[in-house]
Amino acid sequence: MKIKRKVLSLALTMAVLSGIMGVNAGASMNWYSGSNRVAFRNTSPIRVSAQNLGTVSPGFNFSARVAESCTQWRAALGVNVASGQTASSAHIRAYGGSRAVIERAVGEYNTTYAGTNINPIPHVTIGNISTTDGVKSVRRYDTVSEMYVVQLRTESSWHSHYINLTRQTTTHELGHTLGYVGHTTNDQDVMYGGNQPQFTLRNNEKRHLSQIYDRFR
Ligand SMILES: [Zn+2]
Fold this sequence. Notes:
The chain is α/β, with parallel strands linked by helices.
């Protein structure tokens, strides 16, 4: 009897501790990022605007790239990520333009990036989750975020390679603003740390963020 009570009391202590720490015991989630953080957005729909900064090449077609990226994340998360919104009502404002114009807008000079966010995105810490890769912290983004995509060609002759690089960059940056913190190490992933022409979200990265939306939204 004594032993049984001790086990029960230990279980209760762990449950109380888990509650205090915000850890959902037994919730082993697949983790697919080099970061220890993840986030989500609570609005429905999540409104996204697209705007060119300065003069852009016709082949850049940024609003189409943003619309495609919204479609991909909408399917992955099961959440209405709505493109074509006005900037004043958007939760995520996507800007595209030449590297020089974007560097001026962002206020930082980096000749290597294809896109960027203004980091860190303001957030509310929600708690922790237990994953296959340890305990991770979950945040909620409540504020308007801005993302930037560099047009990689300055002339109007865009080849499919550059269009696909832009597709990957746009979906990648949108992923960050939707809550995907950090990068993957597989160069075929959209959330890989580098720019590559494979622009379709893959199962591991879709699941990484969708499980957070499923659980916390
Ligand atoms: Zn990134």
